[in-house]
Specification:
By secondary structure, the chain is mainly alpha-helical. It has 2 domains: 87 residues, Uncharacterised protein YqeY/AIM41, N-terminal domain (Hypothetical Protein Yqey, Chain: A, domain1), CATH 1.10.1510.10; 52 residues, Arc Repressor Mutant, subunit A (Orthogonal Bundle). It is built from 7 helices and no strands. Helix 2 packs across helix 3.
Length: 152
């Protein structure tokens, strides 16, 4: 089984052959981010670390899409969407609402959280288990709601 990094190299070559400029650009940026991270750590990335870098690149595209849409630049937002689609191949699928609620419930139980002051402990547990498959803002909102509600 090929590593994600090897798959990225293969996809870059394919995008080059296909003449798909937007996909090629996005994949090259991901490759550069991976190389930068490897230089920073002074070693090759593990598969999980590769996924973290890819997840950050996808998040950057999401933020750019939102900014372009607010600025009325639908043309640029469309390019960012296309780049995001090329990068999402390297990011695990997001947790469903039910999976996230289950994870939050387990984290509340395992940490013994009982109120809003325990949000940080629960967040740490949930985000550690979710491994990039959940948006931190969404998790925080749900954890706060669960811990401030009567049922916990």
């Amino acid at each position: 089984m090929a590593s994600p990094k090897e798959g990225l190299t293969t996809e870059i070559q394919q995008a080059l052959r296909d003449g798909d400029r937007v996909r090629l650009s996005a994949l090259r940026l991901l490759s550069a981010s991976v190389k930068n991270r490897e230089i920073e750590l002074r070693r090759d990335l593990t598969d999980d670390e590769f996924v973290e870098v890819a997840t950050k690149e996808v998040k950057r595209r999401i933020e750019a899409i939102e900014a372009y849409e607010r600025a009325g630049r639908e043309d640029r937002a469309a390019v960012e969407r296309e780049e995001m689609a090329a990068l999402q191949v390297y990011v695990p699928s997001a947790l469903t609402d039910e999976e996230l609620d289950t994870l939050i419930g387990e984290a509340i139980e395992s940490t013994g959280a009982s109120g809003p002051n325990d949000v940080g402990r629960v967040m740490g547990t949930v985000m550690g288990r979710a491994k990039g498959r959940a948006d931190g803002r969404v998790v925080q909102e749900r954890v706060r709601a669960r811990l401030s509600g009567s049922s916990g």
